[in-house]
Here is the input.
Amino acid sequence: MDANSLPKNDANFAQLTPLTFIHRAASAYGNLTSVVYDNTKFTWKQTYDRCLRLAAWLQSFGIKKNDVVSILAPNVPALYESHFGVPMAGAVLNTINTRLNASAIAGILCHSEAKILFVDHQLLSLANEALSVLTTPHPVLVVIGEVSSAKIYTSPGLEYEQVLALADVVAFPPVPVTNEWDAIALNYTSGTTSEPKGVVYSHRGAYLSTMTLLLQWGVGLQPVYLWSLPMFHCNGWTFTWGMAARGGTNVCIRSPTARDMYHAISSYGVTHMCGAPVLFTTLLQASPTERRPLTRPVSMLTGGAPPPAFLLESIERLGFRITHAYGLTEATGVALVCEWQEAWDHLPASERAQLKARQGLGALSLAGADVKDKETMQSVPSDGITQGEICLRGSSIMKGYFKNKKETDEAFKDGWFLTGDVGVKHPDGYIEIKDRSKDVIISGGENISSVEVETALYRHPMVLEVAVVAMPHPHWGETPCAFIALKKEYASNEVGIEEEDIISYCRDKMSHYMVPRKVVFLQEIPKNATGKAQKVLLREVAKGLKVGTKKKNHEEQVMIKKKNHEEQVMVMSRL
Here is the structure.
């Protein structure tokens, strides 16, 4: 008998799933606080029992393996419990972005074929609007909190605490995970109703991602974690499961306002929190009545657009210890972590900030993270200059896009997942993003597809051409900037269409966080030889613009000079 002939058995092999964390937490940390929310407080024993009850009720209601259960809620205990209770019933959890509009939510419910929709009572009107336009069978609606008097489109009267009370955990025990490749969660990369991209996570991927991030961020035993990051973001970057693994306390707040964050940090002794760089500005601009001094350092993991050096320096002076990471929905959240090296502590503050702004090294759950030439799939030199596409592979990468084989096939190449992000690799192996080949705009941690915004603007009766790029924003980091060329009959703009008219139009057509904050009217959109909009040039123009600035009420000419003897492009901007 050789070493490889030894068989697997139930004693030496178990399917990997983060559901084991909650069972262990109930046993090891049973009397410790698991969740705090306003005047509500649970222990790990109580949270485990509530998750068991949720799983039991779902099964009694007819939910079967691989059924999708959606939830639309801010960071409240029910949303946390769904991360265990829904997969414990064998179902797939779909957390919906609360910032989406009704049509986007309806698109997700339609595409996912969700059987049940849990909705927070304050979002009931939004859910009702989504259900009212849904042409496919409606999911059963269960309200979290007080039931509004507003009309409910399906099964009125169901309320979250009531269904937990009705559950029979003896008759409906948790469904065992018999295959770690089974789906645990379904997360949508955007709210579009046309060809939505639903990213499917496996139990194995969720488990490994959770363990990886706890280790690489150095999360110790019994942390106090502030939910400043929405749990609907890649399942809270897996910290929903991770806090159970460490016996931590989940401090839930409905919205990450300066007042609520400082209050929670001071009242509960918060040790860890996550969020986009926009939270830095929120915390820094807090009024004296909102701000409270930090009695201990708070570790903060941030992702999204690299925060400016001055912002990092300012937030760290308050007592926050920043770790920068890079992730995407398809990688089960965080894929790269800027692991800090002790030698860097002695560098000047500006140099430390530059290092922290890099996206970092591959997550331990990955078998590889590299920057490659997309055509040859060869690694680019580690010189910090040569650009290529960031590519990933490993067990934490998504299973694929739900009901979208074409997009799934295109996302994988030669055993690698293509992120669509352009970056460089430094001599020390740390990766840094330089551009987004998919033209994704990261605004306050939200990924905005410029194509989606452009599609909506093209529907405006006066619009001939449009190109949307990112522009700097003092609060959100980035925000959409729309360059628009009007149709010939409106080109003189004698009809008097203004920037605010376009912005108002967008507010009616898309989720508000996607709405451009700046609109620039052009004679025509500059294009390259193949007829594609030259977004590189437009980004340079956008860098010089500011949100909210008012100039004289006349058109100004902006000359964009292109290199290599290309023709000059006249851009008429009306700011």
The domain at 440-573 is CATH 3.30.300.30 (GMP Synthetase; Chain A, domain 3). Residues 551-575 have pLDDT under 50 and may be disordered.
